[in-house]
């Protein structure tokens, strides 16, 4: 791996750069919270060669959203399901918008 490869990872939202302890610290939560959302399948951390959990920035953003819901009184399992459904809705809306743009470019409105 070259130095350029290492630096390019700094911009990669999916690179598992954070240990469980650091991730929990950044989120202002506990490692047990991260384990709980992992068990609920909200996020699946990658594992280091030594078997330690590693989290990406993308995963931390998802975990932060779940934590907001938990802090508002939502049970962890329900918070994870809400975040998953929000993510699925966002993806469906993105796909629909893409299909609309494609349809509109294939059938431009005619002037009358």
Automatic annotation (TrEMBL):
UniProt-recorded Gene Ontology molecular function terms: DNA binding
Entry superkingdom: Bacteria
Stretches that traverse the bilayer: none
SUPFAM superfamilies in alphabetical order: Putative DNA-binding domain
GO biological process, one term: regulation of DNA-templated transcription
Domain HTH merR-type: 17-85
Protein known as: Helix-turn-helix domain-containing protein
Lineage: Bacteria, Bacillati, Actinomycetota, Actinomycetes, Kitasatosporales
